[in-house]
User: Fold this.
Amino acid sequence: MQVSRFAPSTTGRAHPGTLLAGLLAWLDARARGARLLLRLEDLDPERCRPEWSVRMREDLAWLGLDFDADEEQHDAGARHAAALDRLAALGVLYPCACSRSLLRAESDAALGRGARYTNRCRGRPLPAAGWRTASEPLRVALPSGRIAPRDEGGRDLAQDPAERMGDPIVRRRDGAVAYQLAVVVDDAASGVTRVVRGHDLAASTATQVALQRLLGLPEPVYRHHLLLLEERGEKLAKLHGAVGADALRSVYAASALTGFLAHAAGLRPEAAPLLPAALLRGFDWARVAREDRVVRWTGSALELIPRHD
Assistant:
């Protein structure tokens, strides 16, 4: 059986981009009879709060999205540690002494999360007592070579991740396991075979596949979809103060917001109210727009506006 997942971060209320991503993941899974997992990514001790996990579940349920299983990422500490043990045993785990200012000075602009790391700390040994006693961030020395993950939408994900993005951080200075490692370990533990997500994460895919191969984990099939953008061109995000679900729910019925999201995604010619289940009949990715859409919040409604590239 195919297994998919929706994995939002719990750093604030859901916003229109969160809800669109959840809707598309839900439609993909339900249309093909796949099992769908909700994974709440809550490992960032600086930004994640338990109440945001509660609100995220409420917001997704309000929209009409249901899941076959539900997990919180912080519960996976034992398997994250086991993966770090494995990487240490392989001799590819190392501490990074680079300051943020040095990283900014040396990095090249890169697509996706963060910027390119120059691998300057490769070869530094772990503390004699092991990685658990390290006070610095830990990185993984990726093998060199081109990796070409499969993207169902035809996006070119091929790159040499060690050269293009650099060795990823897998454990932060504060001890939190980092996104790149957690996501591949948790996908494997849940038996995920399909990953449907926004294309802002596309550039991370080769790095994640490299980690999967190091750890001997299966590789899912990927599909990356359009984003909702702010007028200045950045994706809608909690970090940028995107309108939250509390404001949206105060002015929209769930069916009206679903209609807007379906129209934004190209699934409907107009934003007529409907429930997610009504979109299942005939759902086809060929009907989903590939181009990002720009959204404006007026204070009382969402508007789609033309892009001026």
Summary: The first strand starts at residue 3 and ends at 6. The chain has two domains: 3-67+226-305, 77-224. The CA atoms of residues 127 and 250 lie 53 Å apart. The radius of gyration is 20 Å.
